[in-house]
Write a structure and sequence with these properties.
Blueprint: E1 8-11, E2 19-29, H1 36-41, E3 59-66, E4 69-70, E5 75-76, E6 86-97, E7 106-116, E8 119-129, E9 140-148, H2 167-180, H3 188-207, E10 212-218, E11 221-223, E12 226-232, H4 262-276, H5 287-298
Length: 304
């Protein structure tokens, strides 16, 4: 597999012999505790992780499905003791290569909890497709809704669903995807502040939700410092997919960009006058600035 000039890697039927990796992140949300009637019906609940006051020892299993059938053996996270939050932060290597991945492959994630001696019960499950609607392999972080008390299956546990009470979190996820795909302008210092605020908003939304959310991360393909997108394509396939190779930002030349900004200059003068004393707080423009302002005010607007 060779990278092309449009920053895409194409998956062929015999290329890219690299195993797929998925990172299991955090599990957030509200978990329901068993009531008194459930404890009477099943006394083992008292010794299960569901009845613990702190975070119980959960683990996650990963399956790969295609057309309703399992393609690989399950892969699970290692044992980890949690204190106040379920956070695995672990990369799992799936026994499947990129070249062997079908177009409709789905990743199924099931969270299990200890129920008794040599017994575990599913806390919930969720699924997500490896490729998007345009055939591009998913990248970055994704928050998946966990369907309670069931094993993950592509037919009944979709991870990407519309939650009526979480419109803000879903809207921010779409904007973050546009930023990652280069469809939004990137400003380093502003991006750090913005994404930190997005993380705080998502944490508040997930903690106040009645559902649970599992965060997973798909790897990025990087070659010589350039990030590429993995696109599904098979030899002999005539299907075409639309890919946006550039952002939707239109750059317009500004002839006044090298001129002085009168508002910023005035602001800096007033800010310095606050430190210099009371007499300079009512600082007025000098003759040159006044003449410039008169010229601007007397200029007629362009006719439409």
């Amino acid at each position: 597999m060779e990278p092309d000039s449009d920053k895409f890697w194409y998956v062929h039927s015999c290329d890219l012999d690299v195993n797929i990796q998925v990172k299991i992140g955090t599990l957030d949300g509200r978990r329901e505790k068993p009531n008194y009637e459930d404890l009477l019906k099943d006394p083992l609940l008292k010794h299960s992780g569901l009845h613990q006051a702190a975070c119980s020892d959960l683990y996650v299993t990963c399956h790969v499905y295609a057309e309703g059938r399992e393609l690989t053996l399950p892969v699970r996270t290692s044992h980890k003791s949690f204190s106040s939050r379920w956070n695995w932060n672990e990369w799992l290597t799936l026994p499947l290569r990129f070249s062997d991945l079908p177009r409709n492959a789905v990743l199924a994630l099931t969270v299990y909890d200890c129920y008794g001696p040599r017994r575990s019960e599913p806390l919930g499950g969720s699924t997500i497709s490896f490729f998007g609607k345009h055939g591009v392999f998913r990248q970055g972080l994704h928050d998946l809704r966990v369907w309670p008390n069931c094993v993950a299956h592509p037919d009944n546990t979709p991870g990407k669903v519309q939650d009526p009470g979480k419109d803000q979190m879903q809207r921010l996820a779409k904007l973050a995807k546009k930023h990652r795909n280069g469809q939004m302008m990137k400003v380093d210092w502003l991006d750090r502040l913005t994404f930190r605020e997005i993380e705080l908003i998502n944490e508040r939304e997930k903690r106040s939700s009645n559902s649970m959310y599992l965060m997973v991360e798909f790897p990025r393909v990087e070659h010589e410092g350039v990030i590429y997108s993995v696109v599904w394509w098979e030899r002999g396939d005539q299907a075409e997919y639309d890919h946006h190779t550039s952002g939707s930002i239109v750059r317009i030349p500004d002839p006044e960009i090298a001129l002085e900004n009168l508002q910023e200059s005035k602001h800096h003068r007033l800010a310095r006058s606050l430190r210099s004393g009371v007499t300079d707080r009512d600082l007025k423009p000098n003759l040159s600035i006044r003449d410039t302002l008169h010229v601007i005010m007397s200029t007629r607007p362009p006719s439409s």
